[in-house]
Write a structure and sequence with these properties.
The chain is mainly alpha-helical. The protein is 68% helix and 3% strand.
Length: 180
Amino acid sequence: MALRNTEETYGSVAKYFHWLIFLLVAGMIALGFIMTSLENSPLKFRLIGIHKSIGITILALVLIRLGWKMANVAPILPESLAALEKFAAHAGHAMLYILIIVMPLSGWALSSAAGIPVSVFGWFTLPNLVGHDKALAHQLAELHSVLAWVIIAAVSLHVCAALLHHFYHKNNVLRRMLPW
């Protein structure tokens, strides 16, 4: 399998980024639900630290993925798709990228506003994005929570669209992103 994309399929690097980021985002959403259900305890604070570190890792990976995407050709959508379907595909991908960038930024800003530094696996600490502000921290916590649900909805639509292409349109849109 080629490293780079072609007009027919995605290369192994794009596939690796796609599936790694998906697994990390899915795990982060699950971890977010678990840790927010816990009472304050050393375990909860340890999970929050892991959550922050993985969130920043996702942010870095998605930015690298965008760079890789810009340096590669994009596989062409099937000609059988209507213009509106092609627009929806591009808009859906753009929305996923935006959400996966905004989500960790909102968490980083939330920590900053709460006056809690963001340490990435204990290796380094990020600078604050905003000043300490409890009211802003509360608003950012709400935004972060809402974004989790929006990501769940967007990923669900993305999966449904891929399955629609595979089972209804019977084209290669899903197969060209599968890792095997």
